[in-house]
Amino acid sequence: MSVVAFERKQDAAAWTEAELNTVVTALQTVMAPATGRSWETGATENGDVQFYLLGPRPEQACELCLSRIGRQYILEDGSGRLLFEHRNLDLVVLHAKAAVSSSPRLMVRAIMVWCAVRNTIQEKFEPLLAEGEELLVQVAPQLAPFA
Amino acid sequence: MKRAKNQDVFAVRAPGKDVPEVRQLRKQAGDWLKQRRADAGLSQADLATKLGLKYYTFISQVENGFSRVPTELIGAWANELGLEQRGFARHLLMYYEPELHRLLFGAESKSK
């Protein structure tokens, strides 16, 4: 007799260990002790599970909320703004990570842009300025009689 | 906060944390909001739809005490619960900004 192994239905009312591991592992860096962040889980009145990434004390306000409704994962910020939704948890978690660490990334980008601009100025404009200065030094004595 | 069955099997809260007053007050606000919603005969999904939210997960986020009702939603939230906007905002302020509430309105009971 052969037994068909049906896929065990996922308990909608709880995060699976694998799901929680995926989320916590991915957010490990943004939840480092120095950041003061922590996390908790909860559920909607329908039993849809939620994962809350909490900011530092004393507020400990929700910075991100990851919910699972059916097979869909929903990522929202603490103001209820929908950031991303997908069936693939890895993808959603990537967005969560990016959302939390967006400010340092922006700062890094700004610094990179500033360095690039400065470098361009040094490479392109400084030789021109030096050239102009040289020209002025040569021309200035000839202009003296007209002064 | 509503906990799922067997949820305690996995680390529900990061270890070594007590609950500060700010969070307790936010949780109380969430409980109060949940009760007002129940009085209005609305589910979280109903309220989310009325507020123009795609999902009801944010209602749960607020009612579980992890977030506040955003200022821009206070008026609409009050309307959908059949409450007067000013009184609703004032009551929420008691939980969200207790000191500001005390300065503005003096001591007031939370059991409204």
Structure description:
The complex is a heterodimer of chains A (147) and B (112). Chain A is α+β, with helices and mostly antiparallel strands and 147 residues long. In chain A, 44% of the residues lie in helices and 21% in strands. Chain A has helices at 17-26, 89-100, 102-143, and strands spanning 38-43, 49-54, 62-69, 72-77, 82-86. The model of chain A is unreliable at 5-9 (pLDDT under 50). Chain B has a single domain (19-105), classed as 434 Repressor (Amino-terminal Domain) (Orthogonal Bundle), CATH 1.10.260. Helix content of chain B is 56%, strand content 0%. Chain B is built from six helices and no strands. Chain B is globular. Chains A and B meet through β1, β2 and β3 of A and α1 and α3 of B.
Point out poorly predicted stretches of chain B: 1-18
CATH class of chain B: Mainly Alpha
Structural class of chain B: mainly alpha
Helix segment tally of chain B:
6
The structure class of chain A reads alpha+beta
**How many structural domains can be distinguished in the coordinates of chain A?**
2
Oligomeric nature of the chains: heterodimer
Number of strand elements of chain B: 0
Count of helical stretches of chain A: 3
Determine Rg of chain A (CA atoms, Å): 29 Å
The chain pair with the largest interface is: A-B, 37 and 38 residues
